[in-house]
Specification:
459 residues, alpha+beta, Beta-lactamase, two-stranded antiparallel ribbon, 11 helices, 29% helix
Length: 459
């Protein structure tokens, strides 16, 4: 081959690498053998210093995760940090399945559990933008059998206020699919009427515990007679509310939530590995789920295996996906509803989602002190009370199998921790992860204006 032809071929190869979406040379110092893979080849990464972060300090994330691996507290992890829309850290460590000695990869698929909730809530807010409803509309407009709900009060069942769409988006609805996650009314029952009301509740709970319904709509129809756990809007209770968010999407569109999220969110954003039903040809990329023993060392809870497709698509959980997919979803929100020319939401809608909707008198106990709740996820209100090293206005949630994401608008930052550990709380891996991310930010924050941030109440 002539020298001229060699040069031309080299130039063409370089142009192909640059032109392919998402294909770019990894950040300086990255081992080429461990290049992060995304939906279209090599994920675009930049030198951390170009976005105000320290390369040296970001290496502490690797050391932090390695400590958990060395102590046998997790099998593996994928961690991702992006600032100003640019990925500066994306790494896989350990094993996706320790029993199979299968290494963790950056395209490993994780059980997202409650990280399903923000996505489903986003779906409903897309319909809000289209004028399908107002946030304070009662859900009974679409679920008429949820009109005239009852609620326990001093041992009796009394009329409840209407449950609204805002209530189900914020976990202040009092709704339950089983009746087992609310306060019992059986205690100190003084009259036959009270005892009969309690017996009725027990019968309804037993009916709800019958064989698993085939669809979410079936489950919600079955749960309609169950009394509310409290008057809507008076408490924050983590439970079935987002199942009602999902079924409202289905009622308004005639599509299942699986179809809607796939066609209206995942496909437009290029989230090729996020789904309810994992195809058989992707099972080899699924991570095993582990449980900690009393000393914190892990044992196998759930191994990766193919499961027959389901028709039951809950709003509260059920999706699986990769770190890079969830990053694309989170970055879309941080950008004000747009990513790579695809717009799913308007900027003001995202700011509404990032606004605390529950006041300061309803503890969001799943995240701890200092947190409120927006439309679909938690909102950090007071870092002085929280364990997390994030800015006020951060929008975040996690899954029961250990995954975590957060969007920090003030720092223009997205971070993801993907592990499979259930329960995860005693490990403290989540708040500690936010510490090792935050300490790598080294630039000046003066005069930075967030693109999206929750609206603040007038004083």
């Amino acid at each position: 081959m002539s020298a001229t032809r060699t040069v031309i071929c080299s130039l063409l190869a370089a142009l192909v690498l640059v032109a392919r979406p998402g294909a770019q040379r990894p950040a300086e110092g990255t081992d080429p053998a461990r290049r992060a893979k995304g939906m279209n080849g090599i994920v675009s990464m930049v030198k951390p210093e170009s976005v105000g972060m320290s390369s040296q300090r970001l290496t502490r994330i690797r050391a932090f995760i390695q400590g958990y691996l060395d102590r046998g507290e997790i099998a593996g992890a994928v961690t991702l940090v992006a600032r100003h829309g640019k990925i500066v850290h994306f790494e896989a460590q350990g094993h996706r399945s320790r029993e199979e000695q299968a290494p963790m990869q950056t395209d490993t698929i994780f059980s997202l559990m409650s990280m399903t909730k923000p996505i489903v809530s986003t779906a409903l807010m897309m319909l809000w933008e289209e004028g399908h409803f107002l946030l304070d509309d009662p859900i009974a407009k679409w679920l008429p059998h949820y009109a005239d709900k009852r609620v326990p009060d001093n041992g009796q069942l009394v009329a409840a206020r209407p449950v609204t769409i805002r209530h189900v988006l914020t976990h202040t609805s009092g709704l339950s699919l089983t009746g087992n996650d609310g306060p019992a009314v059986e205690n100190a029952l003084a009259t036959p009427a009270q005892r009969e009301a309690a017996a009725q509740q027990q019968r309804q709970r037993a009916a709800a515990a019958a064989p698993r319904p085939m669809t979410l709509q079936d489950a919600i129809d079955r749960a309609a007679p169950i009394p509310l756990n409290f008057q809507p809007g008076t408490q924050w209770q983590y439970g079935a509310s987002t199942d009602y968010v999902a079924v409202l999407v289905e009622k308004m569109t005639g599509m299942t939530i699986d179809e809607f999220t796939r066609q209206r969110i995942f496909q437009p954003l290029g989230m090729v590995d996020t789904q309810y039903n994992i195809p058989r040809d992707k099972v080899g990329r699924v991570a095993a789920v582990y449980r900690p023993d009393e000393q914190g060392r892990i044992t196998l809870l759930r191994k990766p295996e193919y499961r027959e497709p389901t028709t039951y698509f809950p709003g509260v959980a059920g999706m699986s996906g990769t770190a890079i997919d969830y990053f694309r979803y989170a970055q879309m929100l941080l950008n004000g509803g747009e990513l790579d020319g695809t717009r799913l939401l308007g900027r003001m809608t995202v700011s509404q989602m990032f606004t605390n909707q529950v006041g300061t008198d309803k503890p969001v106990y799943v995240r701890g002190d200092g947190w409120g709740f927006g439309l679909g996820a938690g909102v950090l209100l007071d870092p002085a009370k929280a364990q997390d090293a994030m800015s006020p206005g951060t929008w975040s949630w996690g899954g029961a199998d250990g995954t975590l994401f957060y969007i920090d608008p003030r720092e223009d930052l997205v971070a993801l921790l993907m592990v499979q550990l259930n329960p995860y709380a005693k490990s403290q891996i989540r708040p500690k992860f936010s510490n090792v991310v935050a300490q790598a930010i080294v630039d000046d924050a003066a005069d930075r204006v967030p693109r999206v941030i929750g609206f603040q109440p007038l004083r």
